């Protein structure tokens, strides 16, 4: 398979846009320019069709171009396409009501356009509430592109260095963060409560932010007791616990991963699946924290603003999405689980048949194959055990057989409500063929 038109498009765009695309996280090898998506399928400019497991970095939980959502969005556009820039809208209230029914542990909710805005505001609120500045994030966790968290993601072994006093050396993923800001963030290993405690003993921590399952380096699950341990440390040291459910929210379950784990954060951030791919994000949690937006004391008041917050198009998309996710007759989560299990069972058989050491880590419709004999519990575990070269070849071999996984190691695979048994079976046939080639 080759993609000459895709490459040409990237080159043309690159004369005008640095890198040729508007999110450099989308840049990958092979370069594929997609032109259409529907249900579980993608089509590229070079004329190939794929079953999609990337889901645009995970939002498309219902699948691409969900008809109910399109109808709702079309209606919103005809009804007066504006968020007026003044006063409340009925629709934002309707969305808040639905959201809080779906996420019952949250007392209040606020809305933004992107996950990065939600995590940025969560950290700002935590700093305002505690009067402290330092924060803790996870090595291997991604919480957005802003200064407070743009560091220590998929850090190469040579740059990672050794843990000192519970934390890794800071490795920003962008230039331009002032050093005085950089020192306020501490990156610790996931699944290591001792590391968090050591950092909390040495610094005035305002917040700890973590995905409850690390889903930007595959699917790294919290070990039993870990999330509850974070909760206890937050209470002991007085910092705000932020669960970043931008990926797990609505995908792991209706109430996010917190509903599965039974551990409640003070603040939680959502995005992606909440509007099935339309730009909408949420920050939910304790009223006492979110109400800082209207604190009578201007020194404590947190600015919540955004021209496009709750724009009617994503709001209509989110309402349609939540109604479908919450409709027992649709049984969205039942279908997702059946498809995900079918894929997992099939993959296990194929890896055994071809003698490929592999660990499949899955939470609901999100999964990742680690080519390892030992299950990784953090980023260092991936560096130590995962066969990255094989992963790269595996993803390429699947793409060439019409199965699209993002071609970067340990990136999560996502199933949607639009995936059918026939899609899964075709995926397994392609996997069988790919493994035969890779092992041959
Ligand atoms: C867990 C998590 N938090 C935050 C973000 C940032 O969201 P956005 O890209 O919408 O700004 C992402 C994006 O991938 C994410 O995966």
Structure description:
The chain is an alpha/beta fold. The protein has two domains: 4-65 and 331-439, Aspartate Aminotransferase, domain 1 (Alpha-Beta Complex); 67-326, Aspartate Aminotransferase, domain 2, CATH 3.40.640.10. 38% of the residues lie in helices and 14% in strands. The chain has 15 helices and 14 strands. The protein has helices spanning 4-14, 67-78, 90-102, 115-130, 157-160, 179-182, 193-202, 226-237, 256-261, 287-290, 312-326, 332-353, 379-385, 388-399, 421-439, and strands at residues 34-38, 41-44, 49-52, 108-112, 134-138, 185-188, 205-210, 240-244, 267-270, 281-285, 359-363, 366-370, 403-404, 413-414. It has a seven-stranded mixed beta sheet, sandwiched between helices. Helix 8 links the parallel strand 7 (205-210) and strand 8 (240-244). Helix 7 (193-202) packs parallel to helix 8 and helix 14 crosses helix 15. The structure holds pyridoxal-5'-phosphate (PLP). Pyridoxal-5'-phosphate (PLP) binds next to helix 4.
End-to-end separation in angstroms reads: 19 Å
Mean pLDDT: 97
The total number of structural domains is 2
Strand tally is 14
Strand order of the largest sheet: 4-10-9-8-7-5-6
Please name the fourth-level CATH homologous superfamily of the largest domain. Answer: Type I PLP-dependent aspartate aminotransferase-like (Major domain)
The helix-and-strand class reads: alpha/beta
Largest sheet: 7 strands, mixed
Bound molecules: pyridoxal-5'-phosphate
How much of the polypeptide forms β-strand, as a percent range?
5-15%
Question: What is the H-and-E element order?
Answer: HEEEHHEHEHHEHEHEHEEHHHEEHHEEH
CATH fold topology of the largest domain: Aspartate Aminotransferase, domain 2
Spans of at least 5 consecutive residues whose pLDDT stays below 50 are: none
Share of residues in helices: 25-40%
The count of helical stretches stands at: 15
What's the CATH first level of the largest domain?
Answer: Alpha Beta
* CATH architecture tag of the largest domain: 3-Layer(aba) Sandwich
